[in-house]
Amino acid sequence: MIALVVICAFFAIASPQFLSARNLSLLTTELSITATLAMGMLLVILPGNIDLSAGSGVGLLGGIASVLVFEHNWPAPLAMGAASVTGIFIWFCMGNLIVRQKIPAFIITLGGLLIFKGLFWLVIHNSTIPIVQGGRANLYSVLTTFYLPPLAGYTLATLIVIALVLEKLRARKARQAYGFGVEDGEVLFLKLFLAAQLIFLFVIVTNKFRGIPLSAGILGVIAFAVYVLTAHTPFGRYLYAIGGNEEAAVISGVPVEKVVVGSFTIMGAIVAITGFMQTSYSGTSTTTVGDLMELDAIAACVIGGVSLKGGRGTVLGVLFGALIMACLLNGMTLLAVSPEFKFIARGAVLSLAVWMDVRLAR
Amino acid sequence: MKPVVLQAENITKQFPGVVALKDVSFDLRAAEIHGLCGENGAGKSTLIKLISGIYPYGSYEGDFFVHGQLAKFRSLAAAQRAGIAVIYQELALVNDMTVGENIFLGSEPRTPQGLIDWHKVYHEARVLLQKFNVEIDPSEPVAKLGMGQKQLIEIVKALSKNSNMLVLDEPTAALGEHEVLTLLDILRDLRNRGIASIYVSHKLDELFAVCDRITVLRDGGSVAAFNTEQATKAQIIKYMVGRELGELFPRRRSKPGAAALEVEGLSVTDGDFGQRVLTDISFSLHVGEVMGIGGLMGAGRTELLMHLFGAWGTRLSGSVRLNGRELRAQKPEEIIRRGMVLVSEDRRRYGLILDKTVGFNLSLSSLAKLTKNRLIDEGLEFQKNNHFFQSLRVKAPTLEAPVAKLSGGTQQKVVLGKALMTEPLVIFLDEPTRGIDVGAKLEIYEIVNQLTDAGKAVLLVSSELPELIGMSDRILVLHEGRIAGEFDRDEATQEILLAAAMGQAHVMLT
Question: Of A251, A257, A309, which to mutate for an interface test with B (greatest number of B Cβ within 10 Å)?
Fold first, then answer.
C-alpha cells in the first residue's frame, strides 16, 4: 500500500501528465490486461505450479484471431471463439501432461513458451496483421476502444457499492452467528466508506476522459469470477490445499489431477481473453505482442502476496500487485525512461517485493 | 556421586500471553541417562530449546551452568561448542548424500590444497561408526537407510563434534520395536563412555528401560524427579497428568456384525521398482470390530493400508470387497466416497494443510457434500465443523486457529475429525497415537470405542504392542509382507506378537 502511494507520488511529481484523466484511463486499460492474465496465473500458482508460456500464448491466440479476421474474412466473434477454443484445448493438454506424466509445470510451460512463440510467428508469417477488415471496427477492435457512457458508469458503481455493503454486512452477521470474531463496526464502516470513495473516484476520473474502459469491465467480471471460484467453491479450497500440502490433499480425497488440469484449462481461456485485449490494444498482431507478459503476471502475483510454493494468495492481493506493476510501467513510459532501465526497474521492484514479503512473513 | 555437568536453576520462560516454563530446576550428571517426560505442552520442547541455545541467553529468567560455569548460549552453535548436541525428531540428514558425507557435513577434513579429503572423510567415518558399534557402511547413501539407522547416524554425527551431552527429543517416535532396542543399547554404551544424555519420551517403557533418573514436567513446572529404581509407572503417570488414570486401554467390545471389508489373496508390488511388498493377504473386518495390525518396521503394515486406500502400489492379484460389493475404485477420492477413510501415521505430511485453519482442514474431505448451487454453503460447513470441533474436544481457541500451532494430540484430533466427517464405514488408523500425550491418547481410544459402537469398523496399525493388544479385538501380525499369524485379543501377549512379527511363530521368546 505504502509502496503504491510512493510510486504514484513520485510519478505524479516527476511527470504532471501521470495524474491526467487521459493517462489514468490508459493506465486502467494497461492494468486491466496485465491483471486479467494475473488472475489466471493466480489459479495456476495456488496449487504450486507456474505458467511461463502465458506471454507467448497471448501473442499466439491474439494472432490466430487476427489472421482469421483479416485473411480469412471470419466475423470477429467467430474468430475469437475459435482462438479461445484453441487456447482452452492447448492448456488442457499441458495440464494433463503435467499431472499424468509428472513433468514439472516449469519445464512443460518453458517448452510452451518457445513452441507458442514459434507457432505465433508462423501463423502471422513474421509480419503485422491488422485486427480489422478494411478499417471497420469489430468486436475484436472495440475491446480496448469502447468506453461505458458516463451515466452507465455511475449506475454500475452505485450498484457495485450497494452489493459490496450488503455482502459485507451479511458476512459479518453470519460470522457473529457462528461465534467468530468480527472486526470493529467502525473499522468496517471506514473500510467500506473508503472502498466506495475509491470506486466513485475511479468512475469520475475515467468519465472525465471517455468513460470506464470496456477492458476494466472485462477485468471486473473475470476478477469477480476468480474470487468466487477461489473463496467459495470446493475447487478453490482444493487449489489452496494442493498448494499447501499435496500429499495430504491426495490422502484427504482431493481430486488433485482434475483440479490442476482444471486450473490450466481456465488459464487457457484467460490467456485467450488477454490475447485479444493485448492485440487489440496494440492495434495489430505483431511479433512482439505478449512479450514477457507472463513475467508481469507472475510479478503481479508475487507482489500481491501469492506464494510461489503455492497455497497462499488472494484475488485482491493480485489486483493490487498488478496495479503497482502497471503504475510503474506507465510512469516510466511517461518519463521516457529508456527500455534498458525499464527492465532493470521492473526486476528491482519484483526482487524488492519478494524480499519485503519474506521479511514481513517472519 | 557423579559430577553435575549441566544444571538449570529456576528457569522461567515466557511467551506473549503464556508462561511456558516456570521456575524449573533440573540437573544432568556425567555418565547418566536422564529421562524427561510430560504431556504435550508440559514444557519439554521449550526446555530443550533453552538448553540448546535456540532461545538465546537473555530471553529467559534463571541460569544454566555447564560444568559449574554460568552458560550464556546465544545460539545453537554456542551450545554445541560447550558440548551439547541435540537430536531432533525431524532428522537433519541430507538424503542424497552418503553416510560419511553427512557425518562431516560442514566440517569436512581438507587436503593441504584446500579440497575435501575424501579418503579421510570415509576413513574417519568408519572409525567413528566402529567406535560406537554402529554397523553401517559409510559410503552407503542415507536415502537407503531405515529410520533407526538414520537416527544412529545423527547421533554419531553429533558425537563426532566432541559433544559430551546428548539431548534426544522423542528419538523412538518413528522406530520399530527392534530398532528401539538397538538405540537403547547404543545409549547405554555411550553412558559407559561417560556421555550424559537427556532422553525425552512419552514412552514409559523406554524411560524405565534406559534412564537412571526421570524428571516429570507438568504445565511448565518440574513436579518430580525420581531415581528410576524407586519409581513405578503408575507414579509417573499420576504426576504427568496430575490425576489417577483408570484403565489405560478402555476398549469396550461391541458385537461384531456383517463383514465390512473383505480382502482375498492380495499381492502388491511397489510401483516404482516392481518389488513385491505384500503377498497373499486375506482377512475380513467386521462392523463393530477393531482389527489390529502388528509387525516390525518394513513388514508392510502402512503399505497395506495405503494400498487399500488407493494411494500406493500396484496390485498383482487379489480382490477387495467393501460392504459386500467389489471395490474397484483406484483413487483415494473415490474410495472415500465409497465409505473408507485413512488417518495417516504422518499427520504433518499426509494429514494436514499446516498453514490453514482448523476449519479448513476439518471440512476438506467433505466439501463435495457441503455445497449449494456448487458454492460452499458456509452455514452448513460451520455446523459440521463445529460439531466435530466440540464432540472431539479439539483444544484450539476457535475453528479459525491455524493448525500449525496446535499440539500433536490436538492436530491428530483435527485429522480424525476430517476423516469422520466423510461418514465412513471403515476407518484406517495408522499409528493414531504416535507422539501424543497420555491424556489425548485416552480420548482417541474413547473415540475408537464410540466408532465401533456406532457400527463402524476400524483397522488399527500400531507399533506399541500394549496399545495394539489393549485396543484391538483381533490382531493380524505381518512379517515381510505376509500374514504371520492372527490372534484373538485374549490369547495375544507382547511375547507372542513379537515372536510372530519376527517370523518365529512357533518359538516363544522369553
Answer: A251
Nearest-angstrom CA–CA distance, A8 and A3? 9
Q: In Å, what is the CA distance from A347 to each residue of A104, A212, A295, A339, B445?
A: 24, 31, 10, 12, 56
Q: For each of the domains in chain B, give its residue range(s) and CATH number, in order of start.
A: 4-241 (3.40.50.300), 285-315+325-501 (3.40.50.300)
For residues B465-483, average pLDDT: 90
What interface predicted TM-score (ipTM) does this complex get? 0.89
Question: What is the number of CB-based contacts under 8 A between chain A and chain B?
Answer: 83
Q: Cβ B355–A255 below 8 Å, yes or no?
A: no
In a domain, A87, yes or no: yes
Q: Which residues of B touch A244 (CB under 8 A)?
A: 353-356
Which H helix or E strand runs over B162? none
Residue B178 DSSP one-character state: H
Cell, residue B281: 493377504
Q: Which stretches within B242-300 are classed as H helix?
A: none
Does some domain include residue A113? yes
Cell of B360: 479448513
Q: Is A252 on the interface with B (CB under 8 A)?
A: yes
Q: What is the total count of domains within chain A? A: 1
C-beta atoms of A311 and B355 within 8 A: yes
* Residue closest to B125 by CA, chosen among B144, B153, B148: B153
* Segment B226-259, tens digit of pLDDT: 888 888 877 887 787 665 444 567 777 777 889 9
**Inter-residue contact A32 to A216 (CB < 8 Å):** yes
- Per-residue pLDDT tens for B256-293? 889 999 999 999 998 766 788 899 999 999 999 999 99
Which residue range(s) make up the domain with A59?
Answer: 2-145+259-361
Residue A227 lies in a domain: no
Distance CA A76, CA A143 (A): 11
- A200 located within any domain: no
